[in-house]
Amino acid sequence: MRYSQFLIPTLREDPAEAEVVSHKLMLRSGMIRKLAAGIYSTLPLGERVIQKTAQVVREEMNRAGAMEVTLPFVQPAELWHESGRWNVYGKELLRLKDRHNREFCLGPTHEEVITDLVRGVVSSYKQLPVNLYQIHVKFRDEIRPRFGVMRAREFIMKDAYSFDVNEKGAEVSYKRMYEAYSRIFERLGLKFRPVEADSGPIGGNFSHEFMVLAETGEDMIVTCSECDYAANTEKAEIKKPEKVDGSKENLLEMNRVETPNMRTIEEVTGFLKTEAKKLIKTLVFSSSDGPLVALVRGDHEINEVKLKNLLACNELELAEENLIEELTKAPRGFAGPVGLKDVKIVADYGLIGGTNMLTGGNEKDVHIINVNFDRDFTVKEFADIRLAEKGDACPRCGKSLSITRGIEVGHIFKLGTKYSKAMNAVYLDEEGKSIEMVMGCYGIGVGRTVAAAIEQSHDKDGIIFPAAIAPFTVIVVPVNTSDKAQMHIAEKIYQEFRDKGVDAIIDDRDERAGIKFNDADMVGIPFRVTVGKFAVRENSVDVKIRKTGEVRKFAVNDVVSAVIECI
Ligand code: ATP
Ligand code: MG
Fold first, then answer.
1. Contacts of 140 by beta carbon, 8 Å cutoff, 6+ apart
2. Residue 395: DSSP 8-state
């Protein structure tokens, strides 16, 4: 490829719209351009990176026995009615109507379509297992699209779906995908970690997210300093405490205190000169099973995912003001468990043994001190419903947990029979009995993976692409294009790279060398071969390694094989 003929519209300035470095660099290096919120065009340079990333994914999926297909992007509503998701998927699902007033949606994911396909073409146990995948566009009407292609509305995903005869088979398929994912992210040159993720009502250890470790990640990951336990904070377990502080305190008399306009934990504990851990935070939720009250210690945070799983309810969200008032007879900020009637109360393990606690008084501007469990109110159960924090004990080995940030680039999930049951995807076993297929689904955000690679690997000069996904592996830069001898050597080296199958570009633009060097650095090409006057005089060229900044000299005739050895 010749730079002069290739479209790389680099920008000199940081674009104002970009908050994170990958977004800035993808815009500045001319990889993408925005069309609308969360909707991007991919330019030739970006397309090369996306294609190379997709190719690694494709090779590993094929190696794991999955078969590539292309599924329609526009999906009929009927399928979503069948699965029961049309009315529960929410606003991320972009719905539309055709000229006949028939309802459709833009595919945010393809469980319905694939289940429909497979139930139509697979009928016997002899045809199973199958794993089908595609690398294709998705649309999710994200509430806050941001960070460029990292959280876009339209984006490329690799999604695979496995179908097995039973649970055991599904677990084998799951494990195979886990291994394929590990190979993919290793080949892409990323620092990543598979972490246990919430598997919802399916339970078990059958949902993992693949996280690229990066400060700017939106996800919080819990990792153990001692063993290899790692989990999304949504899922990270906290064991029931064996020993509890404060249980030796004498129970004091409960007392109502005036706390005018004090709603927050800081305000109340500051005013009453006590600590947040002596406060019972009372959270009112509305759920598909009616209202519910959850109690956590004032210095802890509720984990809604764990709470939802505990209750096994379909929907759960913090209650609106009117429900809070109806239940507690007080405005938000003054709720407490004492005197609450006809509502289920669940308390976090962190409150076990809590003595002489502070709570809201269920009356405006009133709190209660010296509240005690059992004596003053009862809860239905104690459970693990809070977010794990730095320093909590590892649920596996008991050592201290740390929290790091990550970018979720992949997600593997055992689906069980959720879709096959709802959509009647069955096969006939050896005895001719009709049995539901057991499914799994496996996604990788291709654009997000590229952005994550950039988050993880860049410097002040631009992107430092891992060789596997760099748009070009080598750039040959003649310093002075009007010097015929230099150009001749540069062309010869470029041609030799191409002959040997190396993805090379020659910067034949009539520009100052400094500009060409800056562009090569910005775009993140791993190797730069500089052909200057010494190439002509002394038969020597420089190779700059983008990652380390190191410059090495080679004879013109040796440079191609020397670079190939380093790739
Ligand atoms: P998130 O929690 O980040 O919204 P998700 O749980 O909705 O992700 P999945 O449905 O598991 O994501 O999708 C599989 C993969 O698709 C994710 O691991 C991620 O890499 C990618 N992905 C999901 N949403 C987006 C998006 N809005 N933009 C780009 N990639 C995305
Ligand atoms: Mg999402």
1. 92, 93, 94, 108, 153, 155
2. T
Per-residue pLDDT tens over the stretch 462-513 = 999 999 999 999 999 999 999 999 999 999 999 999 999 999 999 999 999 9
* Closest atom of ligand 1 relative to the 157 alpha carbon: 16
Query: Taking the C-alpha atoms of 284, 288, 289 and 292 in order, what is their torsion angle to the nearest 10 degrees?
Result: -10
Average pLDDT over residues 299-313: 93
CA of 445 to the centre of ligand 1 (A): 6
Query: Long-range contacts of range 549-556, CB-CB < 8 Å, 24 or more positions apart?
Result: 556/489, 556/492, 556/493
Supply the mean pLDDT for the chain.
95
pLDDT above 60: residue 365:
yes
Spatial contact of 223 and 402, defined as CB atoms under 8 Å apart: yes
Buried b or exposed e, range 505-522, using 16+ CB within 10 angstroms: bbbbbeeeeeebbbbbbb
Please report the domains of the chain, with CATH numbers, ordered by start residue. Answer: 18-237+403-455 (3.30.930.10), 255-383 (3.90.960.10), 474-566 (3.40.50.800)
- 297 forms beta bridges with 280
Confidence of residue 246 (pLDDT cuts 50, 70, 90): low
Minimum-distance ligand 1 atom for the alpha carbon of 159 = 14
Could you tell me what percent of the chain has a pLDDT over 90? Answer: 90
The helix/strand/coil state of 24 is helix
Q: 428 near 125, Cβ under 8 Å?
A: yes
pTM for the model stands at 0.89
From 156, 157, 185, mutation site for ligand 1 pocket: most ligand atoms within 8 A of C-beta: 157
- Ligand 1 atom, smallest distance to 409 CA: 20
Residues with CB under 6 A from ligand 1: 109, 140, 142, 151-152, 155, 157, 408-411, 443-445, 447-448
User: Ligand 1 pocket: which of 92, 134, 408 to mutate (most atoms <8 Å of CB)?
Assistant: 408
The residue length of the chain stands at 567
Nearest ligand 1 atom, CA 142: 27
Nearest CA to ligand 1 atom 11: 411
Task: Give the end-to-end CA distance of the chain in Å, rounded to a whole number.
Answer: 19
Dist. CA 59 → ligand 2 center (Å): 26
The residue contributing the CA closest to ligand 1 atom 25 is: 151
Kindly state the tokens that stand for 128.
Answer: 């199973």
What does the pLDDT look like over 406-441, one tens digit per residue?
999 999 999 999 999 999 999 999 999 999 999 999
Q: What is the 3 state secondary structure string of 533-552?
A: HHHHHHCEEEEEECCCCCEE
Q: Once rounded to an integer, what is the mean pLDDT over residues 443-457? A: 97
User: Among 143, 177, 407, 448, which is best to mutate for testing ligand 1, by the most ligand atoms less than 8 A from CB?
Assistant: 448
